[in-house]
Specification:
Oligomer: single chain
Helix content: over 70%
Number of helices: 7
Radius of gyration: 18 Å
Order of helices and strands: HHHHHHH
Distance between the termini: 49 Å
Number of domains: 1
Shape: globular
């Protein structure tokens, strides 16, 4: 496989666990993880721009520029902190199931997942903007479901590799179960 950032992203789709193993073999490099997080968060920011631009803010006091500025600040500064917290929690849950990885590996799994997910986010944004303009909310729901599946599949494989689990499917299932339980608790409390 060719070396390089884009080649690594494309190559990851050919073997998710091998891709994560390759990333971990490069060593514990926290600045690289921060660069991955910054890249992934910026792609998330870009992927939501079509929705922000399509939002009708005419009846409010908020301008589109203000909405974009708030979204940029939220995604670029708060999302990395939240992702580090999610990585720490996922590592603690993995430890309860006998994981042998480190917290750095859990952070690496989330950061690399964001990078590998970036083409999916860009395609979703492009298709989503078309569906928004055609007023097809059902198609947007399908896109969101496919994105959730991609996140579970990619993160599950990366976390399984980084924590030395044998089954990525079981890890993805546990991640899904935790999020379903949390969503249920939030729904019951709200």
């Amino acid at each position: 496989m060719a070396n390089g950032f884009v080649a690594d992203i494309v190559g990851a789709y050919g073997g998710l666990r091998a891709s994560m193993r390759n990333q971990m073999d490069r060593g514990n490099d926290e600045p690289r993880l921060m660069a991955y997080l910054a890249f992934g968060c910026f792609v998330i920011f870009l992927s939501f721009l079509p929705r922000l631009l399509a939002t009708d803010l005419s009846g409010t006091d908020q301008s589109i520029a203000a909405g974009i500025t708030v979204w940029f600040f939220s995604v670029m500064f708060f999302l990395p902190l939240m992702l580090y917290a999610v990585a720490a929690i996922s590592h603690l849950i993995a430890k309860a199931f006998g994981a042998k990885g480190s917290q750095h590996n859990a952070r690496h799994a989330i950061a690399w997942m964001l990078v590998v997910l970036s083409p999916v986010l860009i395609v979703k944004a492009m298709l989503g903007s078309v569906f928004i303009s055609l007023d097809m909310p059902m198609a947007i729901d399908v896109l969101n479901a496919l994105l959730a599946f991609a996140i579970l599949r990619i993160w599950g494989a990366f976390l399984a590799e980084s924590e030395n689990f044998s089954s990525a499917f079981k890890v993805s299932s546990i991640i899904a179960a935790v999020f379903i339980v949390l969503a249920g608790i939030i729904y019951l409390l709200g």
